[in-house]
Design goal:
- Helix content is 45%, strand content 9%.
- The chain is an alpha/beta fold.
- A hairpin with a 3-residue loop joins strand 2 (49-58) and strand 3.
- The protein has four domains: 1-26 and 351-363 and 940-1005, no CATH class; 36-148 and 175-338, Mannitol-specific EII, Chain A; 400-540 and 636-851, no CATH class; 551-614, no CATH class.
- It is elongated, with a radius of gyration of 38 Å.
- It has 35 helices and 18 strands.
- The strands form six sheets. Strands 1, 2, 3, 4, 5, 6, 7 and 8 form an eight-stranded mixed beta sheet that branches. Strands 9-12 form a two-stranded antiparallel sheet.
- This is Anion exchange protein.
């Protein structure tokens, strides 16, 4: 039965070569072919002596041996003449093509090639030995220096010149056989001939890799399991027409010293021609070498069945070639490799029926993942097996993890100290720095150990701090016990979180598009930047610069300690009671205070005994503000510079990668050393040295009953609802940002599991009187960035490719364990200046803005159109529409900032929910095409139902009575359309058509 294929099956503009390649390449399910390393050797003449000299090599880009012959050129994009490509096409049409040759050594391969040429009448039999002699000359690679010939070598070459052609049996190899028996017979004949040839010094190539090959460090640049493609070009006097052969071996074979590195050879291209056209031969060799490293043509070379398939591959390459006018471009100028190499998938998609529907510019932006495990169907993530957890542990033991641990640890303890101090001020020390440290350590380590996404870092956040302050003020003003009231709010909120998990409420993240993600993450980044700068400005207020200082009036600057009023000296009686929250120091009675010489006391002693400081220089602190600023900005700028050091030209790749990975650690150590060298009393990191509650009148466990009326236990559910909304939105938006497809995470997201553990930890922290914790956006992004992996064996000139993130639980667990034992590390940590940590905060805020499209679009306001970067969305969306969308985001961000900075911050979580509503309203302002490029498409229930119906009808392909859309399988007959190609369907599913619209005719291959 002949199956016809509609005009949606194959676009009318697909060339015949592309049609042929579609069937050559077949399905994409096959394993990828090995990477090809291509080496081109040219024949060098030195009198009567000849050798093959390596002249260029390719992995991705071309490297030439410079004219001086002492060094390799920089990797560059190969620039080919169009004429050389046509000449190459002619060579493959007229030359010898041997596919799947069972070759075991270079002499045997060359013998088979020559045999085939003689059989086809392309080579005279009397030239057999001369060709063999030339092709079996020694190969000298760039790693070897030229060797001057000795007199013995010259004598050897002269003696062998007269006896260069060994005796050959005329009956050997009359035809090119493929059977095993014939091959065995031919091998025995070849062995006899080759032994005779080798005895006459005909073969200069060793059968095993040389020491120089094994020691060549270039092998590190070649991927594992790579195969080689050797190109041999040269000119000889005895040929009247070119000798051309393209060989694909059945199995990759080590050919001894032919290749620069010990890589097995799979392809061999030979071009020998008459003298006088060396440049033309060299360009043809460069053309085939460039084709062999082309992703699409290399696949064709591996799967080609005959000569015509290879020619179709060249024709497809010619279809994509861009020609530069000779009068406007100097071919001697080498084109630098691009930072991002265009993917060959777009070219390959032309040959896949499953991709035709996406070739009309359909935007690739899809909505966010689903609620459960990050899969499209919203299911919960699979249970992690023991082997997977052991794998997570194994990935954690890497030198890159050390840098991530130190970086995130310093960020966490700085955050714990900052929020702990603010919580202490807001709650009258019911929660302070010690509670913040213990809560961070306990909640963070438990989350990283059991949660679905251990890359998320838990921390206290600004909205929670504001809620705690309002809750404490409300409790104090209404006579309600704050800790007990807070416990019940935490329990209600934990229960509500568990209800959200049970009811699959995480489905809402499907509606969290780029609009909401970028607004929330930008806000948190700005908060980090603002707080870091604010604290730095505070240092200038606490340690002011004495701008009124005049050298002439230096004698007028003094500071004296004045005794307190005698009437108030009784206040310093040692028997006076001491407040529970003050330090009980040694107080002196009135007699001791009267006997003191106040003019001889130091500043600390004067204040200790109740004296007062009088004078213009009392508040003078030498250069502390300026020194603090140097430490602050120096840490930030040094970290930023060292992070970019990976892309500099200095030092080897591994050294640059090591410096970039440990950039934050090096910056912190450097400026801690600078601070120690100057010896100024800059503000230092202070950590409690004793594990005990900040207030002496509270313990480590909060009892749920006994201090508040019974109705408080029920009424606390209302404020708990606000906390739940805050926790839910904070946690899920951060999880969506962490689980972006750009991060290439391999494991499931686990949105429900994360929220479950946040709820459990909230209940535990409420019972212990510890702060509440939720996902910290900026620190989590910093954690992701510090664990990014790149290819270790990138081709010369190719930028390292991002592979993904080192997904494991080790770094997070160690960070929070170190946070817990920081109390015992206080003697060491006290040498870290606070301005250095503020610089780390600033870097976290700025670094988290990288890669945010909203920030890129904001910068477009200040750029003329001709100077704007070539962003993809600028090609498809009008600039005025982009500016309008960006302005909406700026307004929403400003509203969120104002709410955060006022008493109205209590409704902050509700406003985050409102961002989703604003995004939904934008569907009425912008087209779906525009939103697909600058945001994501919000999923619709109706569209989902239609897709479900189509899936159900997928099996009814043979029902001809229906006028509905019918899906066709891969055809054996292609129908050429008689009308213009209609727009591609928006979905990427099977390619369907309506029977009423079909108007085609068909033909078979």
């Amino acid at each position: 039965m002949k199956i016809t294929f509609s005009h949606w099956g194959l676009p009318a503009w697909v060339s015949p070569a592309a049609e042929r390649l579609r069937y050559i390449l077949g399905d994409d399910d096959e394993p990828p072919n090995p990477t090809l390393f291509t080496e081109m050797d040219t024949l060098q003449h030195d009198g009567e002596e000849m050798e093959w000299k390596e002249s260029a090599r390719w992995i991705k880009f071309e490297e030439k041996v410079e004219e001086g012959g002492e060094r390799w050129s920089k990797p560059h994009v190969s620039t080919l003449s169009l004429h050389s490509l046509f000449e190459l096409r002619t060579c493959l049409q007229t030359g010898t093509v041997l596919l799947d040759l069972d070759g075991y050594s270079l002499p045997q391969i060359i013998d088979d090639v020559i045999e085939k040429q003689i059989e086809d009448g392309l080579l005279k039999p009397e030239l057999r030995e001369k060709i063999s002699y030339v092709l079996l000359r020694k190969h000298r690679h760039q790693t070897k220096k030229p060797i001057h010939r000795s007199l013995a070598d010259i004598g050897k070459s002269v003696s062998s010149n007269t006896n260069r052609s060994p005796v050959r049996s005329p009956a050997a190899g009359a035809t090119f056989h493929r059977s095993t028996e014939d091959l065995r017979m031919r091998q025995s004949t070849s062995y006899g001939r080759l032994r005779h040839a080798q005895s006459r010094s005909m073969n200069d190539i060793s059968d095993t890799p040389s020491t120089d090959q094994l020691k060549n460090k270039f092998i590190k640049k070649i991927p594992k399991d790579a195969e080689a493609s050797n190109v041999l070009v040269g000119e000889v006097e005895f040929l009247e027409k070119p000798f051309v052969a393209f060989v694909r071996l059945l199995q990759a074979t080590m050919l001894g010293g032919v290749t620069e590195v010990p890589v097995p050879t799979r392809f061999l291209f030979i071009l020998l021609g008459p003298a006088g056209k060396a440049k033309s031969y060299n360009e043809i060799g460069r053309a085939i070498a460039t084709l062999m490293v082309d992703d699409l043509f290399s696949d064709v070379a591996y799967k080609a069945r005959d000569r015509e398939d290879l020619i179709a591959g060249i024709d497809e390459f010619l279809d994509e070639v861009i020609v530069l006018p000779p009068g406007e471009w100097d071919p001697n100028i080498r084109i630098e490799p691009p930072k991002k190499v265009p993917s060959a998938e777009k070219r390959k998609s032309v040959f896949s029926l499953n991709e035709v529907g996406q070739m009309n510019g359909t935007a690739g932006g899809a909505g966010a993942g689903s609620g459960g495990g990050g899969s499209d169907d919203g299911e919960m993530p699979e249970v992690h097996e023991i082997g997977e957890e052991l794998c997570c542990t194994y990935f954690g033991f890497h030198i890159q993890s050390i840098s991530a641990i130190l970086f995130i640890y310093l960020g966490c303890i700085t955050n714990a100290i900052t929020f702990g101090g603010l919580l202490g001020d807001a709650t009258d020390n019911y929660q302070g720095v010690m509670e913040s440290f213990l809560g961070t350590a306990m909640a963070g380590s438990m989350f990283c150990l059991f949660a679905g996404q251990p890359l998320i870092i838990l921390s206290s956040t600004g909205p929670i701090l504001i809620f705690e302050k309002l809750l404490f003020d409300f409790s104090k003003g209404n006579g309600i016990d704050y800790m007990e009231f807070r416990l019940w709010i935490g329990l209600h909120s934990a229960l509500q979180c568990l209800i959200l998990v049970a009811t699959d409420a995480s489905f809402i993240i499907k509606y969290i598009t780029r609009f909401t993600e970028e607004g929330f993450s930008t806000l948190i980044s700005f908060i980090f930047i603002y707080d870091a700068i604010k604290k730095m400005i505070g240092a200038f207020k606490y340690y002011p610069i004495n701008s009124d200082f005049k050298p002439d009036y230096v004698t007028m600057y003094k500071c004296e300690c004045v005794a307190p009023d005698p009437a108030n000296m009784t206040l310093f009686d040692a028997s006076a009671p001491v407040a529970p929250n003050t330090t009980n120091i040694s107080l002196y009675n009135t007699i001791n205070l009267t006997a003191l010489d106040w003019t001889q006391l130091s500043k600390k002693e004067c204040l200790k005994y109740g004296g007062s400081l009088v004078g213009k220089s009392c508040k003078f602190v030498p250069d502390l503000a300026l020194m603090s600023f140097i430490l602050f900005f120096g840490t930030y700028s040094m970290t930023l510079t060292l992070k970019k050091f990976k892309f500099s030209r200095y030092f080897p790749t591994k050294v640059r990668a090591f410096i970039a990975d440990f950039s934050n650690v090096f910056s912190i150590l450097l400026f801690c050393g600078v601070d120690a060298c100057f010896g100024l009393d800059t503000p230092k990191l202070h950590i409690p040295s004793i594990i005990k509650p900040t207030r002496v009148d509270r313990g480590w466990f909060v009892f749920p009953f006994g201090k508040n009326p019974w109705w408080v236990y029920l009424a606390s559910a209302l404020p708990a609802l606000l906390v739940t909304i805050l926790i839910f939105m904070d946690q899920q938006i951060t999880a969506v940002i962490v689980n972006r497809k750009e991060h290439k995470l391999r494991k499931a997201a686990g949105y429900h599991l994360d929220l479950f553990w946040v709820g459990i930890l909230m209940a535990v922290c409420s019972f212990m009187g510890l702060p509440w914790y939720v996902a910290a956006t900026v620190i989590s992004i910093a954690h992701i960035d510090s664990l990014k992996m790149e290819t270790e064996t990138s081709a010369p000139g190719e930028q390292p490719q991002f592979l993904g993130v080192r997904e494991q639980r080790v770094t997070g667990i160690i960070v929070f364990v170190l946070t817990g034992i920081s109390v015992f590390l206080a003697p060491i940590l006290k040498y870290i200046p606070m301005p250095v940590l503020y610089g780390v905060f600033l870097y976290m805020g700025v670094a988290s803005l990288n890669g945010i499209q909203f920030w890129d679009r904001c910068k477009l306001f200040l750029m003329p159109a001709k100077h704007q970067p070539d962003y993809v969305f600028l090609r498809h969306v009008p600039l005025r529409r982009i500016h309008l969308f960006t302005l909406v985001q700026i307004v929403c961000l400003a509203v969120l900032w104002i709410l955060k900075s006022t008493v109205a911050a209590i409704i902050f979580p509700v406003m985050i929910l409102a961002l989703i509503l604003v995004r939904r309203l934008l569907d009425f302002v912008f087209s779906q095409h525009d939103l697909a490029w600058i945001d994501n498409i919000i999923p619709e229930k109706e569209k989902k139902k239609e897709d479900d119906k189509k899936k159900k009808k997928k099996g009814n392909k043979g029902d001809s009575s229906s006028d509905e859309e019918v899906c066709f399988p891969v055809p054996s007959v292609i129908k050429i359309p008689m009308e213009p190609l209609p727009p591609a369907p928006q979905n990427g599913g099977p390619h369907c058509l309506s029977r009423k619209r079909s108007s085609t005719w068909s033909f078979a291959f």
